[in-house]
Design brief:
Elements: H1 3-17, H2 33-42, E1 47-49, H3 51-68, H4 74-77, H5 87-98, E2 114-117, E3 120-123, H6 125-137, H7 145-149, H8 156-162, H9 174-191, H10 197-203, H11 207-217, E4 224-227, E5 230-233, H12 236-248, H13 270-277, E6 281-283, H14 285-292, H15 302-325, H16 333-348
Antiparallel strand pairs: 1-6, 2-3, 4-5
Length: about 375
């Protein structure tokens, strides 16, 4: 053994004695998402990032966030998000993000899945949260993984009742959502003693470790595809699950993640829409008219991959610009994403010139 080898072995033993093994140190666990997003941006021909638009958006976003006092605490201020800080809320968030995908309607935006709950009309993501809250209020154990596995109790008819619509439009992809619940229940039973809390324990306060664990162990979280000869990863729902836990529990307890800033923007269909309206993203004419005419884009199509990847990279550039112009700013991609989502939902009812979002049917977002 050489002197260098001996030094490395002694260093490894010292790290182990101090409890700094790589499996216990969040800083050593990485996510592939941001690197893959940069690769997509570098090879994109149908989606472009506007440098001046990105800088202007960064200034606007930071100023608006400061004025509104926007922070991770904003998550819990929403009427429908759970308020208890206990295991029941962890299970609610896990269930919510298992099913948090694809709410857009066919054709007119008026034909949208709707849930009337607590005296209000809820659509999009909020229709899912409202349906879950409604089911719990009706004593349906919809957030219990034991229930998901019980094919005699958790039937298609029961789920149709849980996710019943108060409009003429049914919940999209209901059978796929049922499959996600079944799959997750099976994985929790076989690998995690029927408890998502054991996933949190295994991740050991690492956001990156939890995202990777979800993608490795739960196929319905394995949000990846091929682009220009390379496998690229998005992990939208796995990442937003971590972000929701972090925001709900204010970075403490079940929401403590020591490497939370490794989480990227959540590549969906709303944030690209908002980035386009801010002048940050530009589309090639064929892609622009595809979106404008409400034509579907297949999951994994190069257009869809570019929309998602460039959006992640654009939000990262916005984050860097905010930090550059405001040294010491406490902002990450999660907060920027949350802010952009809330903003685009506000503008949607006011701005008739807002280009619609792209349309892709999938379980990934």
């Amino acid at each position: 053994m050489s002197g260098d080898d001996a030094d490395l072995e002694l260093f490894a033993l010292l790290r182990q004695s101090l409890g700094l093994d790589s499996q216990d140190c969040p800083s050593t666990t990485e996510l592939p998402v941001l690197k893959d997003a940069e690769f997509i941006y570098d090879n994109s021909i149908d989606v472009a990032i506007d440098s001046s638009g990105t800088k202007a958006a960064a200034a606007m976003i930071w100023e608006s966030m400061q004025k509104k006092g926007y922070s991770r605490q904003t998550w819990s201020e929403h009427d429908l998000h759970p308020k208890a800080k206990d295991e029941s809320t962890v299970n609610f968030i896990f269930t919510m993000d298992l099913l948090n995908f694809c709410f857009w309607p066919e054709g007119s935006s008026e034909n949208v899945y709707t849930v009337n709950y607590r005296g209000a009309r809820w659509t999009g993501y909020w229709s899912l949260v409202a349906a879950l809250q409604r089911a719990l209020g009706e004593d349906v154990p919809i957030t219990d993984s034991h229930f998901w596995q019980d094919e005699a109790e958790c039937t298609e008819e029961v789920l149709q009742q849980v996710f019943r619509s108060d409009s003429q439009t049914r919940m999209p992809l209901l059978s796929e959502r049922m499959a996600c619940l079944r799959e997750a229940g099976t994985v929790l039973y076989n690998r995690f003693d029927c408890s998502f809390l054991n996933c949190l324990k295994e991740a050991n306060h690492s956001a990156a470790a939890l995202v990777n664990l979800l993608a490795d162990m739960f196929p319905c979280f394995r949000d990846e595809t091929r682009f220009e000869g390379k496998t690229v990863h998005f992990y939208k729902r796995a990442q937003i699950l971590v972000a929701d836990l972090w925001a709900c529990f204010d970075g403490k307890g079940y929401g403590r993640f020591d490497d939370i800033d490794k989480i990227t923007m959540f590549a969906d269909y709303r944030i690209p829409q908002m980035l386009n309206s801010l002048g940050c993203l530009h589309y090639s004419p064929p892609l622009y008219y595809r979106i404008k005419k409400l034509k579907q884009i297949d999951s994994g199509h190069p257009w869809e991959v570019q929309l998602r990847g460039c959006s992640i990279w654009c939000v990262e550039l916005i984050r860097r610009e905010i930090v550059r112009c405001n040294p010491g700013a406490r902002v990450n991609a999660i907060l920027i994403d949350f802010f952009l989502y809330d903003t685009v939902k506000e503008r949607e009812t006011q701005d008739t010139e807002l280009l619609t979002h792209h349309r892709t049917r999938s379980i990934w977002y």
